[in-house]
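DATA SHEET
Item: assembly model
Revision: 1
Owner: S.N.
Input lines:
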Amino acid sequence: MTTGLFIALLILLAFLAPLTRKYLKNAAGWLYALLPLTGLVYYLSLLPDIIDGQVITETYAWIPVYGINFSFYVDGLSILFSAMVLGIGTFILIYANKYMHTYPMRSRFMGYLILFMAAMQGIVVSGNLITMFVFWELTSISSYMLIGYHHEKPESRTSALQALLITGFGGLALLGGFVLMGQPYGSYELSVLFSDPDLIRSGSLYLPALILVLLGAFTKSAQFPFHFWLPGAMVAPSPVSAFLHSATMVKAGVFLLLRLNPVMGGTEAWHIMLTAFGGFTMVMGAWLSISQTDLKKILAYTTVSALGTMVLLIGNGTQYAINAAIIFLLVHAMYKGTLFMMAGNIEKMTGTRDITKLGGLYTYMPLAAFIMTAALVSMAGIPPMLGFLGKELMYESKLMAPTVRYLLLAATFFTNMVLVFLSLRLSLDVFWGKTPQYAKTPKEPYFPLLLGPALLVMASLLLGALPGLLAGPFTAGAITATSPLHPALKLKLWHGFNTVLLLSFLTLLAGAILYRHKHAFIRFAEKINLKYFAREFSKGFYKAQNDFLVFTKLQTSRIQHGYHRFYLMTIFVVASALVWVVIWRADPIMLELNFADMPLNLVAVLALIITAALSAVVSHSRVIALVAMGVIGFGITIIFIAFSGVDLAITMVMVEVLMVILAMAVLYHLPKYTKYSDTGARMRDGLVAAVVGVFMMVLVLQAGTSQLDIPISEFFKDKSYSEAFGRNIVNVILVDFRALDTLGEITVIAIAAIGIFSMIKLTKK
Amino acid sequence: MESVILQIAARHMRPLLIILSVIVLYRGHNEPGGGFIGGLMLGAAYILYAMAFGVGKTQNRILFSPINLTALGLLIALLSGVPALLSGMPFMTGEWVTFFANSAFELKLGTPLLFDVGVFFAVAGMLMLVMFSIMEE
């Protein structure tokens, strides 16, 4: 009950926030933050029950026939992620309300932010693959709104669209993967999947399902070659980056891998793909971050690198690797959330986030300097911050990696070295050193802007300093949930003098040396980038997108050529051809034509209709043709009356009258009547008309003789009055038995009418 | 095009046609008629008026603009399915209430009738929308 209710409340708040923010003003952030805070407290209170592998589930039927339900599944992993989503989310709401207080449309922004939070929370507690997919897509959509917040800037729009297209493509692949995964089980419930993981792993659907699921995870978590949307998404306001691009949205892919590890993990394919892509992304992200100068871009590339690290660790799959992945996940969320918020603060206070234009900020904002430096200490992996624990475990897992141990070790060493280098650079070059000329004198950021970073840093310190007491129990449940075979390790700060400590020390030393020679190092990185990475992925993506649009335009112009007569011809020919095939295959055609007992007056009407039809074809005047068409229409009306189809007859009269009025309104504007088509075209049209006419005749005659099923008309005759209280069967069918069809039909005519309206009104100019 | 005969006819036909269209709508459940035909008649009433007096003058006399009328009709049709949901039945299950049962004024109202009202407005609205746009050209 609680989990479903909580998400519903979050969604409700997302819609209430835009309406109420302007009355609450500065209090809005604090008030809205109460909801995620409540959720955080609730989920943390579940922690003691969850630790020994217990699970809390909830199910609401949605389409039970297909095994699709809204179900929730709360275990240790869900709680760890909920704590990150809601914990950081609480501070983000407070931060964002202050940060955005001068921006237009800030009320709507808060709504999107909360909607995103609801979607993200939905992913981490989903108990059904389809439920998860729904929330997964919701995060893509709400993040599109958030990244494209500055929608008046073209750069914002393209970045947002790029992120949406990439994660949307991944989402589609993911849906395919989920459907394949559900096949052997006949269910999409996680609990069912977990109960027999070998069923999918040994099945033939495993590999396709795995590739599709990994596409989803890799696009969301910005793995190579889809990494480029994340740096692009830095056009979003800082609260968005601090929330989506540190701890939540981009971690959704990692969450998915962790969540599915018990079912999909442990195989050769899983191991190879995750190690290869994760490892490459890790090194590449770190490398590309070196030569960046935009504070947020640096953070974005290190995020790409960190996500690669996590994917790599999950791919390793050993006890140490999973432990390291989970701890590093937590470490990263805390320091990266802080750093993004601080980057926003620095931009707000100085007007720039180019680190070459920053320096000496310590004298203006000592508190901010202290908080940011503490977060960077965690990023560099220096004790006693939690980051140290993460790095130790990472090295330890690499030393025990089953394959390519030394390559992975070298890659990890390089990445961590770059992180140390960047930590030094972001701290020393921004807060100390030469003070440039600032447009306005910077001062300490406002309290709501510092609260979140300060608390996150403190939490990181506490968790890091007391690993056995806090960090251990906090992550143990998640580790057990991720890999039941490998229990959580006992976390310690001090492992004695061993290889891992030596590696840690060497990393710091190497990073410090790089920082001493930073100018040379950065120039070196730029040179290599120019030579080998000059072709940007992002540009390649735009080119592909453009080419695709050109192709679709070409294809559309072929199919949607705009000639009404050819559309009609296509419809007629295809429809009659299809029906001809069916008639051909079915019973032999038996045309029982019996003209003997046909009333004489009907014969007269029929003769009239045929004459009118012929004269409509041969006439050289539009008015005559119109009148002839009218005669046909009224003739048919008479036939309807003769067979007591009064409703049809009335409708027909109305339609005929309106057609005449319509024609009169248009007739005046039409050009002089001339021959537009040559004889060949006329022959062709005549042939099509004949085929369609004969096909309709055969169809009607066949329908009268061949009995496919019990006619449904009997049912309607029986139930019309007894169940629907109407004696007019036609009307009862329209408004009661088949009301849904009618609803669809009137929707279609409404759309058609609006289409005609806009075509006439809007093309006038 | 100013025709006195048409103008006088249209002025008197309009209310009659409107009343007729409502009657056709209401009796549709048991006798020939219904929302679609009624809607066409309602639309025709205003189109006749527009032919006599011009589109601009007609639009001033309508409570709802054609596009809003279409939207209103769709909304009513959609909402007519909701009461069934509230009582736990599938969407659009017919629900009926009878007033003055067994008297001369027996009046049966139900969600299918409401749905028909929606069709009535939607059809009339779209007819006017198309006709007025073309006639204004």
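QC remark: The longest strand of chain B covers residues 96-99.
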